[in-house]
Structure formats: C-alpha cells, structure tokens
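Handoff note, outgoing to incoming analyst
You'll be picking up this chain. Sequence as last confirmed:
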Amino acid sequence: MKEELLSVGIDLGTSTTQLIFFRLTVENMATSYTVPRMVITRKEIQYKSDIYFTPLLDQTRIDFGKVREIIEREYEKAGIQKDEIDTGAVIITGETAGKENAREVIHALSGFAGDFVVATAGPDLESVISGKGAGTDLYSKEHHLTAVNIDIGGGTSNLAVFCRGDTVDTGCLDIGGRLVKLDRETGRITYIAPKIQKIIESEGWEISVGTIADEALLKPLLVQMTEVLEQSVGLRRDNPYYEKMITNQGIHLSQEISCISFSGGVADVVYHPEKFTDPFLFGDIGVLLGRTIRESALFRNLQVIESAETIRATVVGAGSHTTEISGSTITYTKEVFPIKNLPVLKLSEEESEPAAMGDAIRKKLEWFTVEGSIQQTAVAFTGEDNPSFLRVQEYAEALLDGMEPLLRAGLPLIVVVENDMAKVLGQTMYHLLEWKREVICLDGIHLAEGEYIDIGKPIAEGCVLPVVVKTLVFSK
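Most recent structure output, in case you need it:
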C-alpha cells in the first residue's frame, strides 16, 4: 500500500516568516501477516515560499492579520488549496514565541487545514529543531563524532550539541543579526538591543541610535559578539560579556567538540560571504556579523560542516502521519483519549540507565517549558527485554523523579518504551503514586527526538492503543 500526503510547514521566527510544502510518500513496510507499519519512504519539497520579515504590531504583539495575508498569498502562489493539505506544522520560535498574542496566533494558524502539530518552541527545543534541520545530527551519527550547530537568527544564536546522532546539550545566546538595525537609505542606526547597548556603554564606543554606521565603527562590537560565540563552544575563556549574553543557559562542554555547522539567516553569509557585497543589505548587522564569524576561530579551529539548510533549517514541514499500534502489554489508568500533538522527549541509551534517567529527564523537560509553563510531554526510551522486577522498580522510581515537574503541573505521566515492558512498568509507577495520578505507559513504538504523537482511543477490547507518530520533516 502506498499513499501520498501533502504537508505544509509554517515558521514564525524572530526575524522571518516562511512556508514550505512537502510531498510525502507513505508506505506500509510490514508483511501481510504482521501489524501494519507505515513509514515515510520519500520526501520531496514541492514549494518554498518567499522569506518575509515577521510582521509585528509593536514590540510585544504579532500582526496576525498580515501573517495571515502572507500565508494565504503563498498558498495561492503554490497553487495549493487549503483542503488539499493532509498534515503540517506551525512552529513559533525565538523572540516571537514571547509575544503577548503568540499562543492565539499559532493556534489560529494551525486551523488553516489538516491535523496540525502545534508547538511553541522555547530556546532549547528551537536549538534541537534547527540543528536537525541543518543535518548536524546525521553528520555526527555517520562520522561517530561530536558536533555543534549554531543557528544564528535575528535575535538569538541557538546551540545544539550532537554526539553520534544523539542530542546531548543545548544553549542559547543573545547574539543575532538584528540586534542593531539601520535605515538602509541614510545608514543611521534606528535600534540597539538592550544587552548590546550595555556592551557599548561599558566599552565607551561611539555607537548610538541616530549615528551613521559603517563597518569600521561597528567592527569592535562585531568582534565582541563573535568572541562570545567562540567561548560558547570552548575556544576561549576570557570574554567579559559571555555570561551576560546567555539567554537561558550555555552548553556545558562536557565533550570535546570537533565539528561545527551554522544555520539561520546569518549562516548564508558565513558560508558564502562573496555573495553579500552590501554590508547593510537587510538593514541590520547580519552581513557584517557573518563576515566576522567567517574570519574567527570558529572557522579556523573547528572542522566546518556545510549545513543541509541555513535560513530554512527551522522550517518544519511536518506532518507525516505514520500510524502504529502499541504493544498489547500496556497500562493506562483512565481513558483520557484521544491525546493530540504530544511532543516526544527521547532519552539516549546513556540517559536511559536508571541512575542517569532522573537528571536527564529534568534537563530535557526544560526544552518544553516556555515562559514558565511546561507542555505535556511523552518520555520515550528503549528499555530492556525481560527486566527483573527489581530493575523495573528502579526504572519506575527514576521516571517519577525526572517527571516530577509534570506531576507538579497536574499533568498525566506518559511513557513510551520500545521494548515489551510497559504493563509492569506502568503498574509499578501507578503503585508508587498510590493510585492517585494518571499513568499511560505504552510499548512497541519506536520514537525519535523531535517527533510528536497522537494517542487514540483503545481498540481490540482495550488491549492496544493506536498511535500516530508525526515525524517532523527537516530536509529532503
């Protein structure tokens, strides 16, 4: 059985808004005598939109009317009707995620067509999405090494560290191409971000709103910003502004980084500076920042990987619906189904050991926390074949320890294990909670970081649950 799906991805970023349409081919790879397993066998980009500056009403609100106009215009240019869309994703990232009406805007957009994944990506999740969009995770897996991707946008630089394909760390810095804006006609500075203003004042540079800018005037600032990025990946330790420029956290540098890739709008300049002759082409310092990075230790001291995507790395053409059926040995304590658009927190093999599991889950749950509010999340790991009851007890205790922020928020605990151990694990967790909280524990489902799932109502007399795995499509 073969089926084609049309998927759309919409990304509202700090600086830009864009769409991408994918044609997905989905096939049943199981034999006639086994449970169907639908997988994506082909991903073909059908249409890429123009790239627009994200329209704002003011510094605190998105202009939803203009965003909607952009989306509808691009649908028309692509020759695609909304009722043709089978699936898709709307992702809101960077500083835009913090706008007052961000939640209302993203949910309104998700109603355009299909059964959309809807996610407000905080800085950590945005780092993972852009790193995967750049293809850095696959490169680290194929070459058995540790690599970092730096996604440099308008307001922030998001870092994601991948070790042999697994996401092991994330960070975010207030370094971006639109932290200083200029009038392209006059060359006068029209905006300086607060943190950048503090650096300027500390150094006594003659850079201010109204000043006519040139490369020589801005060079010391650009060098400081680049040195912050160098320190973020362990290439220096002496920049006085590094700690001040951290958005939420830096990466911990627990593993030696050998390779680096770049994505985001500034990355095109980093890779191909010869294409950008006008230093103020976009009315900001993005071109000059990209040139300075190209000349820095980031380029000289690390192996540079060419990204699969740069400015489009965070566009998520989401949406392949690959339906799977859970194993028959499962636990659910209450029928709260269907559960829609549940992000997956995937533990690596090292993080899946009970001794490490609690801390790993707590850290990764921060990726799904935006403005102090945690999203409902499913924790996924491989598990073991035929574990002893003592071992199951250790897993249950570690999961409850790590998932405590979800309990504190009053959310049900949802665990997906690849191996056949969900029934006893879920019942043990439920027992440890004194039968007072909701637990859903499934097995027989393989999940990856960055995916989303829907869990349908029980079938086969309640023995199994249909699970829709929504694979986020990052590149061809």
